[in-house]
Amino acid sequence: MFKKKRLSVGVIGLGIIGSRVAAHLRAAGFAVSVWNRTPKSEPNFLGSPADVAQACEILQLFVADPKAVHEVLDAIGESLTSRHIVVCSSTVGPEATREIAKRVAERGARFLDAPFTGTKGAADQGKLVYYIGGDEETFAAAKPVLEATSKAIVRIGEVGHAALMKVLTNMLGAVTVQTLAEVVAITKASGIAPEVLATAIEHHGIRSGIIDLKLPKMMAGDYDTHFALKHMLKDVQFGLDLAGELKLDLPATKATAYAMREGMGSGWGELDFAAVLKRYE
Q: Each residue of 207-235: pLDDT tens digit?
């Protein structure tokens, strides 16, 4: 009896999330090859994106922005063929996602719009949540790979729709944390212990997963990066750009972007985006 070949997965981009995804995929029994712009000590680290494409059927991208995705596709070149599925888990916005999907289709390959939500802790535990845009056949083929690193997979719609939903949910996260920073600042300036604020929120309807995650670290002045400020600002700007196209005014999001740009100007871009609290310290 012939042994079934293991599905081969290439992970391109080994940052906070990509490196952890690659580890979970190995543990799940996939044949995993990886590449990163800056070389890293990872099993099966190959010399180029083209080498990864030659070794793998499914290519999952965790790079920073649209420019980086296009550079990866340039580097893959003719090694991208009809046997491939490109799973774009980079947050690049809906317009860029559709452009990237078109490039992939021109090579005869298939494309899945698959951004994720969840930061370092979720990636450590293999509990990301993927938003999916694309056709059912492509999704079904890539689904085992996504299941190995997630706790939930949410079908959103066509290509570009998942990318949009990712931007919208990140906007909510950014505005929530900026407001939380303002509340913590007022609490401290009024002489109330931040621990009292935490207890009050615990019994309030405003309590949420992101508050539970960020508030203890903000109170401790711990800005170890789970989601870098520079990346969250990029995502918020995607939302503002889209709102401009739709002729919608987003005052809360604009104010949040302003505060985050100030943080970038202060050199906090590599810190967690909860570092917006540092404006008040």
A: 999 999 999 999 999 999 999 999 999 99
